Amino acid sequence: MDFKLTEEQELIKQAARDFAQNELLQGVIERDEQQKFPKEEVRKMGELGFLGMMVDPKYGGSGLDTLSYVLVMEELSKVDASSSVIVSVNNSLVCWGLETYGTEEQKEKYLHKLATGEIIGAFCLSEPEAGSDATSQKTTAIDKGDHYLLNGTKNWITNGGTAGVYLVIAQTDKDKKHRGINALIVEKGMEGFEIGPKENKLGIRGSDTHSLLFNDVKVPKENRIGEDGFGFKFAMKTLAGGRIGIAAQALGIAAGAYELALKYSQERKAFGTEISNHQAIAFKLADMHTQIQAARLLVYQAAKEKDNGANYDLSGAMAKLYASQVAMETTVEAVQIHGGNGFVKDYHVERLMRDAKITQIYEGTSEIQKIVISRSILK
Ligand code: CAA
Question: Where is the Acyl-CoA dehydrogenase/oxidase N-terminal domain (predicted)?
Answer without folding.
Answer: 6-118
